[in-house]
């Protein structure tokens, strides 16, 4: 997709019943914002391989800031979000996990209990776990 003079977004997707994988390659000449609609509450892993981005909720409050070579796991409720990217080249992977599978698997991983509790309660609009550095190339 061409956004303007020399600004582009490429997307490759793979869908499986347990997870959807979206690989984005984004080349921007200036800082750019994208609206993102989450139609149903989701468990997502954001993997920022290269570049920087920031995700905001519908009230403009910062939810997550990603810098190159890092990843984070989060819960986002259905709603409107804004994703901001600095002018640069970005490479990013988003994994969207099947909710039933994820919540069942998380019973075995106590560190993810906060995410599944947020999903089940419906009271917390989003929860982002701390970012982790990726130490090897993908």
- Class by alpha and beta content: mainly beta
Shape: globular
Main beta sheet: strand number and arrangement? Answer: 8 strands, antiparallel
Provide a count of the helices.
2
- The secondary-structure element order is EEEEEEEEEEHHEE
Walkthrough of the structure:
By secondary structure, this protein is mostly beta strands. It is 12% helix and 55% strand. The chain contains two helices and twelve strands. It has helices at 99-106, 113-121, and strands at 2-4, 7-15, 19-27, 32-38, 42-50, 52-56, 62-67, 70-76, 79-85, 89-97, 126-128, 132-133. A hairpin with a 3-residue loop joins strand 2 (7-15) and strand 3. The longest helix has 9 residues, at 113-121. The mean pLDDT is 88.
Label this structure with key terms.
mainly beta, 8-stranded antiparallel beta sheet, 4-stranded antiparallel beta sheet, 12% helix
Give a short overview:
The chain contains 2 helices and 12 strands.
Write the layout of secondary structure elements.
Blueprint: E1 2-4, E2 7-15, E3 19-27, E4 32-38, E5 42-50, E6 52-56, E7 62-67, E8 70-76, E9 79-85, E10 89-97, H1 99-106, H2 113-121, E11 126-128, E12 132-133
Antiparallel strand pairs: 1-2, 2-3, 3-10, 4-9, 5-8, 5-10, 6-7, 6-9, 8-11, 8-12
């Amino acid at each position: 997709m061409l956004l303007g003079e020399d600004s582009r977004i490429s997307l490759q997707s793979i869908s499986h019943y347990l997870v959807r994988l979206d690989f984005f390659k984004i080349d921007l000449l200036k800082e750019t914002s994208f609206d993102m609609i989450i139609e149903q509450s989701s468990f997502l892993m954001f993997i920022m391989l290269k570049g920087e981005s920031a995700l905001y909720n519908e009230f403009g409050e910062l939810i997550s800031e990603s810098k190159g070579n890092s990843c984070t796991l989060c819960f986002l409720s259905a709603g409107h979000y804004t994703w901001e990217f600095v002018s640069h080249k970005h490479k990013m992977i988003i994994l969207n996990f099947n909710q039933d599978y994820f919540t069942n698997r998380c019973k075995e991983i106590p560190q993810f209990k906060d995410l599944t509790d947020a999903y089940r309660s419906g009271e917390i609009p989003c929860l982002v776990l701390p970012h982790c550095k990726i130490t090897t190339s993908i």
